[in-house]
Protein 1
Amino acid sequence: MNDLRVRPPAVAGQFYTGDPRQLNRAVQEYIDAASLPEDVRHVKGVIAPHAGYTYSGTTAGYAFKALKQLPEKDRTVFLMGPAHRVPFTGVALGDYSAFRTPLGDVPVATGIVSQMLEEAPFYIAAPHAHGSEHCLEVELPFLQVSLPRFRLVPMLFGEVDPQEVAADLLDRLRVDDLIVVSSDLSHYHDHETAQNRDHRLIKALLQGNESGVRHGEACGRAPVTALMEMSESNGWIPHLLDYRTSGDTGGGRSRVVGYAAIAYTL
């Protein structure tokens, strides 16, 4: 994968500010404002929302605070999220050397991406799927503030069996690697209905009930269930860190989106 291009930001100035200083300060404030239970240590993965920071940044801060407390090491982050804009079959990895944000370039683990593309048929390059997609991009500034040294494996889920992806990743993960899943919860119900539906899904997730999650309304159901499969195999424990809706963070309450921060610990 020589002479690869850098994927430019698609939603800077829309989902989050394009000004580097303002962005760094905002992300740091979201993380600093979060408080974690004492038993959230040895984090192996997190689930975080991907809406505009005005709405979901507070909840995202909890997930990334869980990562920021980890020891400083060279890490590979497998960042998984659902494709919203381009339909395709498989998991799109792109063909990039880095993902650019206003805070700088996030290097892609190109060697790992090449191996994945060569070794499993459900991995595809499909850079066109990444071009305008927001779900991975909005997590990157949080990762840049949380983790001093990491390389990225950008995994955009189309139509694919999450169990196959989970089985493949279990063979690839090294001890210091991390899983980050980007997903919002229910969309465009009134506040009370959204809370009821989201709490059912969260309960299923915390109980390891994949069927309950698949029948919920999270847009990232596929990568979430892939993470659940991996957690069951590795003995990881899920912890709910924060839940709220856009109605809690400045939007109206007639049509809201739900957000949760969840950490998986060893």
Protein 2
Amino acid sequence: MAVATTIDPDVLVERVRRDAERAVWRARNGIKNITGLGRPSVAPTPYDVEWQHDKVRLIRYRKPGATTTTRQPLLLVHSLVSKSYIFDLVEGNSVVEALTARGFDVYLTDWGVPDELEASNTLETYADYYLPRMVRAACRASRRVGM
């Protein structure tokens, strides 16, 4: 035998209000997402491309206004499946920004977006071909002895 439960009208009104408010926020966020409005731009730190071969690039970041660095160069290498901007997400939340602010000469691997042209690449292609060339290019650009 089922027992009928009663819901306090004030509780019901509050639930409906809360659900309607959430629906409005979801709709607003969905429209912003679809149109691209309100998205922060990723990779805001200025950079130069120091070396490039095929789709693979070596990016060098510089602290705006700085002409020299005070520390060793750093080469940030991320996984092949990550995007290069993972180290430079948004202003105020960026590893690159923090390192350049401390005077480091920061370099980053950008593996590019693979397609059928890279189908024959193996892990060795990236580790034994591209990576040593990027290290040498970073050393040359930083005027330090390379490999």
Protein 3
Amino acid sequence: MKLPFVLVTLLAVVLSVRAESAGGGATDPLTKLPLPTAGAPLQLHDNPNTIDDVPVCKSKSTMNFYTGRSGTVSAAVTWYTSQLSGFRHVHGVGSDRSQDTFYNATGTLIVSITGMPGKEGQDTNVYSIIYGTIQPGVSDRIIAGMNMQKVVCP
């Protein structure tokens, strides 16, 4: 009697997960923040490279690095602006690449868009997207410094 109940429960869980994925609810496994789905103006390669224990001043971060498959930086910024309600946005340039980072109020979650090399103001294609966690969180100033590759730690 218990076996059919277990099978029904397992089947319900599997179907609900598949329904969520089919409905466009794809999220980054590390941050649980939304990933662009088919039809979005930005497409990423599916499997991220995970980078553990990246120092950010006195904090440590873990990041998922996705390579861009298609899409411009402006389209990516527009898409993330609509998806990350309540997140702050900062723009910078580092190594001749545009850097746009969205982050939450506590500085513990980030999504960072890096463009292909180009001149300031040029709308280049997306090179990569990083989803990351930072513990403990960092300040606006540190995140802005990350965008320009000039982090100043307190």
Protein 4
Amino acid sequence: MGTTDPRVDAYIETSAPFAKPILVHIRKSVHAGCPEVEETMKWSFPHFVYKGMLCSMAAFKAHCSFGFWKGSLLEVPPNGTAMSQFGRITSLDDLPRSKELTRLVRQAAALNDDGVKLERPKRTAPKGPAKAPADLQKALKTNATASATFKALSPSHQREYIEWITEAKTDPTRKKRLATTIKWLSEGKSRNWKYERKR
């Protein structure tokens, strides 16, 4: 028999009104597809565990996300990102109906039953020191606190900011990300500070 976690109840209750029915729908479908699933909180958002990680869901200001740990191996892989194979979920219409979602949960649980592992790409060589682009270097020179924070970050954390900025598809997006980077760095935050475990 699976378990529920009161922290997940609290998470849903404190989420934005638009997010509540989405999270409830996901939670119900996950339990229907895998009755032995266990709920937990990791990185401050709900995860579902069954013989290992199964899937997770999260609510943000204007959208939700839902993703399977081994989503790329499902029979009908959903489209989206690694964290949310269904993209930005803003309403129940962005998700499959209960029957389809439950079927995907069953497939994901079967992968864990079979002990299927995800193959991670191997790095051929370690990455060198992070090299900030010119616009980031210029912005850091105007903010001593942000500059000090950036220099104190590990190369991998520096690279997270650099890649986020350089992967922007439009100039306005790049400028917005650059401004956000300086703001977060001046607050002493890493790129993925929202998902870091609180101490």
